[in-house]
From TrEMBL:
The lineage of its organism: Bacteria, Bacillati, Actinomycetota, Actinomycetes, Propionibacteriales. This is Acyl-CoA dehydrogenase family protein. It comes from the Bacteria. Residues 7-120 form the Acyl-CoA dehydrogenase/oxidase N-terminal domain. It comes from Nocardioides panacis. InterPro entries: Acyl-CoA_DH_CS, Acyl-CoA_Oxase/DH_mid-dom, AcylCo_DH/oxidase_C, AcylCoA_DH/ox_N.
Amino acid sequence: MSPFELSPDHETFRKSVREFALAEIAPHAAQWDKDHHFPTDVVHKMGDLGLMGLTAPEEFGGMGEDGDFTSLCVAIEEIGRVDQSMGITLEAAVGLGINPILTFGTDEQKQQWLPDLVAGRTLAGFGLTEPGAGSDAGATRTKAELVDGEWVVNGAKQFITNSGSEITSVVTVTARTGTRPGVDGKPDRAEVSTIILPSGTPGFTAEPAYDKLGWHASDTHPLTFTDARVPEANLLGERGRGFAQFLATLDDGRVAIAALAVGCIQACLDMSVAYAGERTTFGVPIGAKQGVAFQVADLEVMLEASRMLTYKAAAMKDAGRPMKEFKQAAAIAKLYATESAVTATRIATQVFGGYGFMEEYPVTRFYRDAKVLEIGEGTSEVQRMLIARGRGLPVE
């Protein structure tokens, strides 16, 4: 089996997730989008299905050897095929919520947080982006000072997924915890660490949810910290390694976002093929017209290429390939799949014509949802920078 093919077990798993998505999400997605409703009951059901535990060991309620990163990408793709909001909810719950604690947490931290997160009873957020520190994550201004055995956190984060829902239990936050001397004549640099902040901590506030262009059914908030105090033991991983930890987390997340984009492209292809076969002009289906048929062909090519790049990167992750190789594959998959998804929604909307501009058709929801795929988990510009660096260019 080549790394570009899914195993029979993965395909069986895909079918089960597809059935779940069609039964539990598809019938309600349009209304959730219209109402800006975050369906916590569906999060619980995804947990019951085992989707939150696909990368977690059995000791925390995860799938253990029965799950892997590729399985997570399959699940995200299939959920995202019917609703991008629930797709990003799953992606962020596992890749950004569970994985940092699973990868860098102490035994005590894992025992405290992972069982409920893996079961889908609770959610965790990933607090990296700030008003002045998005792609430039090293410009973090949130501070955490160690005072009498407690971290005192002050600052703000923005665009944080799964951070303010009624079932959010914790957010991991990057913060400046000091400075480190520069080397080779360079100026001192910020020491960035990761702090675990439980929901309900005095001084930790999830501000009102954003009014977004898309992803209306996902939970996204700005966060503020005003003398928020947590025990010293809430340091996640090694002090001063927060920036490196979050970069590693984002490498995985880029592949997962690529999988979400693949689901979006698949939906656009499905909708376009169905509509082109039903809608008639001048006595024939519009799919008989080369202008439409060729657009559908372009969707097929984008889908296949995006899927290949995404699952190649996922297979590299599962095989433990060198990090340098995986980082390059992740950036390539994320860049191509997300930009293709944005193009795919534009093509699908064009195939639908005037109906593509009407909210009663799901193509409009996918059109609105797609744009952020080029921004979250590292913008397209950042991916191009990483890819060029991977080829040895000193690009800044």
